[in-house]
Amino acid sequence: MPTYRTSPPGKLNLFLEILGKRDDGFHELDTVMVAIDLRDELSVRPIEPPEISLSVDWLPSRSAIADELGVASDASVLDVPADPSNLVHRALDLVNQASGYRGGWEVGLGKRIPAGAGMGGASSDAAATLRLAAAAIEDLARSPASDRVRTLHDADLKSMAEQLGSDVPFFLNPTSGLARARGRGEKLQFFDLPRSHEFVVVYPGVALSTAEVYRNCHVSDPVRTGDVVIDAFCNEPSTISEKILYNALQSTACGLSPQVGEALHWLADTSSNPCLMTGSGSASFVWLADPNDSGRTLAADLVRTRDQRTNRLSEQSGPEAMIAEGSSVRSGGALIRAVSTCMAASEILIA
Ligand SMILES: C[C@](O)(CO)[C@H](O)COP(=O)(O)OP(=O)(O)OC[C@H]1O[C@@H](n2ccc(N)nc2=O)[C@H](O)[C@@H]1O
Ligand SMILES: Nc1ncnc2c1ncn2[C@@H]1O[C@H](COP(=O)(O)OP(=O)(O)OP(=O)(O)O)[C@@H](O)[C@H]1O
């Protein structure tokens, strides 16, 4: 059987308001998201033995990412499960149940999107898995040997995406542009973006639990609306400012992890452009006002200040303290990436 590949994108929330708490424990949201070109790499191949064999690696390597974060390569912040708790694994279980496929899957997952960052890495991997596995099932259904496999339709994938997580339906739609998500995140409306937007993202080397951030958050009163952000990005980029980018989870996340607030201050000190935390944190981003600015200059400035701080701390406290587990912006480490909005659909490659 062939291998099916794609590159699941991350996302940034440009606006997030909490409208209420629901009886099922979830929060009613109004959020505006864009997919960005910081991407994981995913390959899925149907195999005969009825097992899911999943290998997960950091790209370019675990030690390279650990160096950037200033943590030891075995630090738990870099642990991504390769067991049934990985959303890729759970997505394949759902596909098998819905399609009646009795074989197994060999899966390779290369991570670039940090976990627990609010960038939706796990959700995007899950949505991409549904799309790849559905394509494989469709091919299997056509082969005479596998006539008992049921082809999956868009409605099946949507229902599975909702079971996997609130952000997964957004990533199921591989189009570019900007999305408004309401309900618990599954009620989606897509808008065309006339041009791409550039950002610099900073992940401070601490993972935040989405459930814990929501547990500690407050329902807003009065509530803001995402309309203003949608209009600004789609029609009036000159009106984008610190005032309209908003995330109701930001103060809660800063309270749970000082590193989130430190990263936001660091961004505000280094750039005059608006900055915001994404999703439930821990990553934050700067939006670059100049559409011709690739973000590389700001990213280079941030890398320089990060490395100066790393060297200063290393001289003060020695290298052992630097690589203590959990150290992050405090000790100089942070992932810094210049990213753009995705302007093209993520393709499925078959080989
Ligand atoms: C913060 C965002 O990333 C913004 O896009 C999403 O709201 C989070 O989406 P997600 O990671 O897919 O979250 P889920 O896996 O569905 O839920 C994780 C936990 O977050 C809380 N949760 C999530 C979504 C939501 N609208 N209300 C919530 O209260 C629930 O406690 C849930 O148990
Ligand atoms: N494919 C996956 N990639 C990364 N983490 C995964 C994956 N599957 C399960 N996980 C688990 O889910 C946790 C959080 O995943 P994720 O990266 O989506 O969080 P997030 O960036 O905060 O996303 P969100 O924006 O949805 O809140 C991780 O700490 C990890 O243990």
TrEMBL record:
Pathway: Isoprenoid biosynthesis; isopentenyl diphosphate biosynthesis via DXP pathway; isopentenyl diphosphate from 1-deoxy-D-xylulose 5-phosphate: step 3/6. ATP binds at residues 114-124. The keyword Lipid metabolism does not apply. One of its GO terms (biological process) is isopentenyl diphosphate biosynthetic process, methylerythritol 4-phosphate pathway. GO terms for molecular function: 4-(cytidine 5'-diphospho)-2-C-methyl-D-erythritol kinase activity; ATP binding. It catalyses: 4-CDP-2-C-methyl-D-erythritol + ATP = 4-CDP-2-C-methyl-D-erythritol 2-phosphate + ADP + H(+). It is an enzyme of class 2 (transferase). Pfam families: GHMP_kinases_N. The active site is at 11, 167. Keywords: ATP-binding, Isoprene biosynthesis, Kinase, Nucleotide-binding, Transferase. Residues 86-171 form the GHMP kinase N-terminal domain. Its EC number is 2.7.1.148. The keyword Nucleotide-binding applies. Belongs to the GHMP kinase family. IspE subfamily. Catalyzes the phosphorylation of the position 2 hydroxy group of 4-diphosphocytidyl-2C-methyl-D-erythritol. This is 4-diphosphocytidyl-2-C-methyl-D-erythritol kinase. It comes from Neorhodopirellula pilleata.
